[in-house]
Design brief:
A hairpin with a 2-residue loop joins strand 7 (198-203) and strand 8 (206-207). The strands form 2 sheets. The protein has a 6-stranded mixed beta sheet with strand order 4-5-6-1-7-8, with helices on both faces. A two-stranded antiparallel sheet has the order 2-3. By secondary structure, it is of the alpha/beta class. The protein has helices at 30-39, 62-72, 88-99, 108-117, 132-144, 162-179, 190-193; strands at 21-25, 51-52, 55-56, 73-76, 150-154, 182-187, 198-203, 206-207. 34% of the residues are buried. The protein is built from 7 helices and 8 strands, in the order βαββαβαααβαβαββ. The chain has one domain (21-43, 57-207): 3-Layer(aba) Sandwich (Rossmann fold).
Length: 208
């Protein structure tokens, strides 16, 4: 901020394996999101080393981080961020397939995922015609359609009621158990964190 350094993260050394479901828990604050932006290649770190899928993001160009996001990292946000298209759910997923270069591949392998998410019969609905939980499940489908190495979920139940939150968390748990999807989830809710295999506490600027 001007000439004043404001550390968002410091002392965050950690190594996670593929196939883990990890929850990063702490009070609402921008620091946890900063961590995810760095892991996802949206924000370059000012120092240190960040490796995702064996590649050091700190040493990459912006173009390199963009390619990594297309191939290896996907995001699910608190506010869904769905495009308001007439056939919204289907179009949102199709656009993600196109960007990821998998729109020419058969969809059969993704049908099981759609059934797991419980949205097979909701694909031709506008986002405004879906409940909050259904919108979040569409956002998850869009995120994993290209089989990313890592799914980053930033407060994925923050805008949902308790019933929808439980449904979305069970979907994430199912993706991890059935597909081996690696999931890193930010949450301030201990009940949501309980769905993960591992819980990491975030305090101030440190990961503990």
């Amino acid at each position: 901020m001007g000439k004043v350094d404001v550390p968002a993260l410091r002392g965050c050394g950690s190594h996670r394996e593929a196939g883990e479901f990890l929850a990063i828990v702490g009070p609402p604050a921008p620091r946890k999101s900063t961590l995810f932006h760095i892991i996802g290649g949206l924000t370059p770190p000012t120092s240190g080393e960040v490796r995702v899928a064996g590649q050091d993001l700190a040493a990459m160009t912006e173009a390199g981080r963009t390619r990594l996001r297309k191939r290896s990292v996907a995001f699910v946000f608190q506010k869904f961020n769905l495009l308001p298209k007439p056939d919204g759910a289907r179009t949102n997923i199709a656009i993600a397939r196109h960007i990821g270069g998998s729109d020419s591949k058969p969809e059969a392998s993704f049908e099981d995922v759609l059934r797991l998410l419980g949205i097979v019969n909701r694909l031709d609905h506008k986002p405004s015609e879906l409940s909050g939980g259904e919108q979040q499940r569409v956002a998850i489908a869009r995120a994993i359609v290209n089989h990313p190495a890592i799914l980053l979920a930033d407060e994925p139940t923050g805008n949902l009621d308790s019933e929808s939150s439980k449904a979305v968390l069970e979907v994430l748990r199912g993706l991890n158990e059935r597909l081996g999807q690696t999931i890193l989830m930010i949450t301030h809710n201990p009940e949501a964190a309980a769905y993960a295999d591992y819980i990491v506490a975030h305090a101030d600027v440190r990961i503990m």
